[in-house]
Amino acid sequence: MSEARDDILANIRRSLGVSADDASRRQIVATRIAAAAKGLLPTRGEGDIEKRIATFRAQAESVAATVARVAATADVPGEIARFLRTNNLPATVRMGDDERLAALPWAATAIDITSGPSDGNDLSSVSHAEAGVAETGTLALFSGAHNPTNLNFLPDNHIVMIQAGTIVPTYEAVWEMVRARYGKGVMPRTVNFITGPSRSADIEQKMLLGAHGPRRLHIVIVG
Fold first, then answer.
1. Looking at residue 26, what is its pLDDT?
2. 20 to 30 Å CA-CA from 51: which of 101, 120, 221, 222?
3. CA distance 168 to 181
4. Where are the alpha helices (DSSP H) in the chain?
5. CA–CA dist 134, 48 (Å, integer)
6. What pLDDT score does 209 carry?
7. Is 4 exposed, middle or buried (0-12, 13-18, 19+ CB in 10 A)?
């Protein structure tokens, strides 16, 4: 397919009498893309950081997620332990090799940590979101060994840590963050946008949580 594409583009260039190495043409395209007007953006998620956090929390809770806010990263394991205890869940969680999660003071709790992707038998998982969208109370999680994608979907209970400063107004702001951080060639393979626990009303229009993924989503906002 790549060879066919190259042949088609080569034929177009020949008909136009241009070269693939024409730097001036590439610059024209880059300038046009950079100057492109942005589309309309909703205002609901705008405001200072406290207003964005308040909107994010309200939107997340409106779709059955639970949200807690802690002052510092050191408080996260204690909040996770409280969530597990409150929901009568075993003090066991699975997470990837995210350095931010590994550095938490887990030893201060009785939580047993297992690492790596889920095999489908884990009740609870912990992930670190790269961003949150205030507009809809949505989490943005990037795939990779640091936060395996199947931890977002296989366990019954998904606990997500997010830094308050990464809660942005809109989805468009998340994509700007992704492009600025990674750039071409090193972008994450998958970006999962998660809004509330999994749900479906396909059967008799009755809302069921956990239909295609976790039945509980607990968000811990840090800072």
1. 84
2. 101
3. 15
4. 2-16, 23-34, 49-62, 76-86, 99-102, 171-181
5. 11
6. 67
7. exposed
SS3 for 112?
Answer: strand
pLDDT at 22: 83
Cα separation of 52 and 169, whole Å? 7
pLDDT averaged per 10 residues, the chain (length 223): 83 88 85 85 93 98 97 98 97 96 96 95 97 98 94 96 97 92 86 89 70 90 97
Q: What is the pLDDT of residue 1?
A: 59
- Cβ-Cβ contacts under 8 Å for 211 (sequence gap 6 or more): 198, 199, 200, 202
> What span, in angstroms and rounded, lies between the C-alpha atoms of 136 and 134?
6
**Which has the closest alpha carbon to 101: 162, 57, 156?**
162
Helix (H, G, I), strand (E, B) or coil at 219: strand
- C-alpha closest to that of 134 among 222, 25, 217, 56: 56
Tell me the CA distances in angstroms from 127 to 39, 95, 223, one per residue in order: 31, 6, 17
* Selection from 57, 55, 52, 78 nearest residue 67 by Cα: 57
Q: Which residue has the tokens 């205002």?
A: 43
Distance CA 126, CA 100 (A): 11
Residue 157 and residue 87 in contact, taking contact as beta carbons nearer than 8 Å: yes
Distances in Å between the alpha carbon of 86 and those of 51, 68, 81, 89, 90?
A: 28, 13, 9, 8, 11
* C-alpha radius of gyration, the chain, whole number: 22
